[in-house]
Every structure is written in structure tokens, then in C-alpha cells.
Amino acid sequence: MSDLVRRAEEWLAQDPDPETRQELRRILDGGDTAALQDRFGAKLEFGTAGLRGELGAGPNRMNRVTVMRAAAGLAARLGPGGHVVIGYDARHNSDVFARDSAAVLNGAGLRVSLMGHHWPTPVLAFAVRHVGADAGVMVTASHNPPRDNGYKVYWGDGAQIVPPLDVEISAAIDAVGPVDRLPLGQEWRTLSEADIVEPYLAAITALPIGDDRDLRTVYTPMHGVGGELLLQAFAVAGFEPPAVVEAQFAPDPDFPTVAFPNPEEPGAMDLALRLAEKAGADVVIANDPDADRCSVGVPTRDGGFRMLTGDEVGGLLGEYVIEHTTAPDRLVAESIVSSSLLTKIAKAHGVRHAETLTGFKWIVKAGDGLVYGYEEALGHSVGSDQGLPVRDKDGIGAALTVAGMAARAKRDGKTLLDLLDEQAQRYGLHATAQLSFRVADLSLIAAAMERLRSRPPQALGGRAVGSAEDLTAGVDGLPPTNGLRYRLDGDARVVVRPSGTEPKLKCYLEVVVPVTGTVSDARTLAASDLDALKTDLTAALGL
Q1: Using an 8 Å Cβ cutoff, are 141 and 152 in contact?
Q2: Backbone angles phi, psi at 114, to 5 degrees
Q3: Which residue has the higher pLDDT, 488 or 1?
């Protein structure tokens, strides 16, 4: 307890934020050992995803001291004279953290370009290369709960950092002394809309979106920062303005209409789907709060609406981009937890295909000639024969391309569901699902992974396990990662891995069903097979 109190008092002495100082003083005066242990018994670890955690006092929380230490560590790794561009979303304290970062980096002798407004993450990723920066910082926690914030770092290639940069920056952060002794600068450039948003819009409206524009769209930015920019993008591209979910359009860091601001979460899309039914929409589009993800909903044949999975959108966009690009050496890429459908699409079109570890930091490095990359968690990066304008997932560029694809299908008398059925008939029905376990105690995830490693299942969902791969050893030339992959008889697959950004264990399931009758019959069979996999996997995990 005495050591915790000492560390808390040292933290208190350097903290520039009166709110977290008051929080910590209240804990100290109240002798709340559990609260001190929670805040000072561990720290947020800097990794390839940067930092992400709950707002509050102490090294195990996101706060001004944590952020200033991160900025000082980045400055030490880059060295004086480097150039960093900084963006931020509309979460609690994002603008404060961005200005603190600018002051620390500039005080360390670096040039800083600070976004003049809360713009989406893909704008920051685009800006790194556009302004010729050596690195980029995005203050965001993406689709995490309201009390979270985060700190993502990009390198000069416009992509998120990969090892060993994360370890090097982390070591530099650990070497930072009290932040009240850091020199702070005040001379940085503020980027205007003309400086960065207009070039970004020019880049994404040059994507292969076609010429068809007859489309009724409903859109929600999920209380995030994508709304105004998506409307601008649609206008520049010549689409009619989408009907927007007014209750979710203005940025609001409390995300009041949803339990979690993630289009994948149950209930998050209810307002958008109700508006779509009322408006007779052809397509529903949603971004997550920092607009790097894109979710798509479509009308069903029985009069309702349903959301497409990230894999369904990935297959549609992958084939669409391949058909609308011509470079002979083009490449498409996906993560190892995404559907195997893209592999078959690429082979059918004579296009190269690559599989990477989870995360766009790996996908965008899959190789030269990359025109499209995706991961099943609603992340897409759409390119052209000139390459990717954004070397990260981009929910605005993906939304534009989905609109162009849907408008083309509508001109031909089809819907996106028709395109999915056609793919199922050509390549087999690739049905995927995710099984997720959110925990309060991270040791439960480690224990579940250990159970699978020590007692590997012999069968799942009535299918024999043909092979079991421990991804920590590195497979197929990929770097090691904490995960397990099972290939099952009958063309099915299961991947299990801890989330890198949330307290979740994620399981990715896929079954491939040949279409010998109707596609509807194949979907029914696939749904039953996926349910059986979920049941057996849940039992094996013990969660």
C-alpha cells in the first residue's frame, strides 16, 4: 500500500489535469486500496495498436500524463527535426490529448501539423503521406465504450506501426521522466479543410465507383465524426444525399442511443433500419465513431432489412474492385480470420491473393499492386490501379464504393443480395459467424486459450478436426501471434484469438456449403452448421 501511495503522490505532483488530480486525491484521502491498485498496479501497454483504455488517473488509464509520456517516447524514437501529423476524434478529451501531444512533440524539436477539426481516422492516415510526415498520431478509441480513449501511431508509409517499432517506442516511453519537466512548444501548423480534407475527397472520389448514381441510401455515423465528411463525399461523387439518422448524426462522445457504438453490436443499427424501411432505401450504410469501418444493410425479399456481414461485403467489394481495375499484377489481401471466399474470387480472375495476420497494419503491407484489402470486422481499404489512397481501413471510401456497386446492380435490375447469391452459385456458399466473449477478468481469456492448447478438441460441430495450428509458432510465413486455427473436415474452419483492443476472446467460424439446390437451402444448412460449431466451441472454451 505504501508503494502504491508513493507512486500515486508522484503522479499527482506532475498531473496537469485538475479533473484527474481531484479523482486521485479523493482516492488517496479515502484510503481506497482497490482503486489505487486498479490504477497503479498495472499500466496501459503500448503496442502496435498504440494505447487504449478507460479515462481516469494513473498509468493504467488514459489521461494527460499517459498521453504526454507517449508523445515524449515517440519524439525520442523519431529524434529532433522529424515531422508528425496529429488527428483526433470527438471523444472525451481527444482534442486535449491532441494538443498535449503537439506541445510535447514540438518542445522536443519536431515539426507538428495538427488537424484543425475532429476528422475521421482515415483522413489522418491519408494525411501522413500527403504532407510527407515521418509519423502520425490519431487520438481515438474507435468503437469502444464512451469512457475509453486511445492513441494510435502511424509511420511515414501511412500505415500503423508494426514490430519492432512498438517495442522501441514503448521502451522510450518507459524512459520518460515526470511530464511537468518536459519542454513544451507552441509552434505548430494547423491543417485546414483545404489542406487535407479536400485532397482526401479528391483521392477517394477517384476510386472505381462507376457512373451509376440512382440510389436511395440511409446513413448513420453512430454519433461519430464521419457524418459531415460522408455527405461531402457523396456530393462530390454525384450521389443524392443520404437520408441520415438525425438522432445519431451529430458527434456525441456519450453515444446516447446505443449500448456500444459499434454497428456489429445488437441494437446499434435499429434506428437506421427503421428509417430505411420508412424511406424505402436501397442500401443502409453505417460508420463506426471514427469512420474507419463501414457496415452495410440491404432490403430482404420478404420486406424487411438485414445487415450484411463484413465477409459478405468483403466478397462483394473484392470482386467489384477486381472487375473495375486492370493492372496485370494487382493483388487483393485479407486477414487470416476472414472468409476464404476472396481466395477463390482472386483465383477465378487470375489475380494475386495474400493472407495476413489480423489488422490493417499487416494487410496494407501484403505486397505491391494491392488494390483491395479487408478484414471481417467491417474494415475495408479500397484502391485503384494507382494503389490505395489510404493505407488503413477507410469507412468513407468503402461507403462510396458500396454505393457505386449498389447503383450499378440497381441499373441491372439487381440488389446486393442478388450479387451474393450469384457468388454463392459460382464459388459455393461461404457462411461465417463470430463467437465473442467479453470478460471483466483478462485471466479468463488466458485460461480458455490454455484449455484449448492442453486439451485440443478432436471434433467441432460434428466435424473431425483435420489440423490444429498454434499461431504462436508462426504459420505459412506469417509472424507469430496468439491464436489457434482448426481446419475441419467438410471445408470448415475455426480461428480463436484474444482481441488486441478490447477485453474479448474472439472466435471466427466458417463453413462452405456447395449450392446444389437453391441458395436459400444452402443458407439454412450453413446456419445450422454454424450453430453446431458455436455450441461445441463454447463447451471447449469453458466460458
Answers
A1: no
A2: -110, 130
A3: 488
* pTM (two decimals): 0.95
Report residue 489 as a C-alpha cell.
473436415
Q: Rounded to the nearest 5 degrees, what angle is found at the Cα of 508, between the Cα atoms of 388 and 157? A: 25
Residue 4 main-chain phi, psi, to 5 deg? -60, -45
Instruction: Classify 125 in phi/psi space as left (phi over 0), alpha (psi -120 to 50) or beta.
Output: alpha
Least reliable range by pLDDT among 2-6, 193-197, 220-224, 351-355? 2-6
Q: CA-to-CA distance for 515 and 341, rounded, in angstroms?
A: 14
pLDDT at residue 509 tops 70:
yes
SS3 category, 317: helix
Q: Which three cell numbers stand for residue 241?
A: 444525399
Residue pair 159/389 in contact by the 8 Å Cβ criterion: no
Distance CA 252, CA 27 (A): 29
Catalogue the active-site residues: 142
Among 192, 37, 224, 221, smallest CA distance to 113 is for 192
Whether the pLDDT of residue 457 is over 80: the answer is yes
The answer to whether residues 426 and 506 touch, using CB atoms and an 8 Å cutoff, is no
Q: Which residues pair with 459 in a beta bridge?
A: 464
| CA 388/CA 485 separation, integer angstroms | 30
Count the neighbouring beta carbons within 10 Å of the beta carbon of residue 373. Answer: 32
Sign of torsion over alpha carbons 126, 129, 131, 137? positive
Would you state the pLDDT for residue 334? 98
C-alpha cell at 192: 485546414
> Per-residue DSSP letters for 8-53?
HHHHHHH---HHHHHHHHHHHHHT-HHHHHHHHSS-PPPBTTBEEE
Say how far residue 369 (Cα) sits from the centre of its chain: 23
Residue 485: φ, ψ to 5°: -130, 130
Which residues are bridge partners to 153 per DSSP? Answer: 137
Supply angle C-alpha 72, 74, 75, rounded to 5: 60
Q: Which three cell numbers stand for residue 420?
A: 451474393
Single out the residue of 389, 141, 124 nearest to residue 114, CA to CA. 124
Backbone dihedral angles phi then psi of residue 526, each to the nearest 5 degrees: -65, -40
Q: How far apart are CA 466 and CA 459, in angstroms?
A: 9
Strands 51-54 and 111-115: unpaired
433 contacts 530 by C-beta, under 8 angstroms: yes
**In sequence order, what are the beta bridge partners of 83?**
111
Q: Annotate 48-71 with b (16+ C-beta within 10 A) or e (fewer).
A: bbbbbbbbbbbbbbbbbbbbbbbb
Helix (H, G, I), strand (E, B) or coil at 158: coil
Q: How confident is the model at residue 482 (pLDDT cuts 50, 70, 90)?
A: very high
- State residue 323 phi and psi, 5-degree precision: -70, -20
Query: For residue 173, what is the enclosing H or E element?
Result: helix 165-174
Q: At which residue does the C-alpha cell 457468388 appear? A: 423
Q: Locate all alpha helices (DSSP H) within 46-120, ordered by sequence.
A: 64-78, 94-107
**Residues 363 and 326: beta-carbon distance below 8 Å:** no
C-alpha 375/C-alpha 160 separation (Å) is 15
CA 114-117-118 angle, to 5 degrees, is 105
Cell numbers 486459450: residue? 449
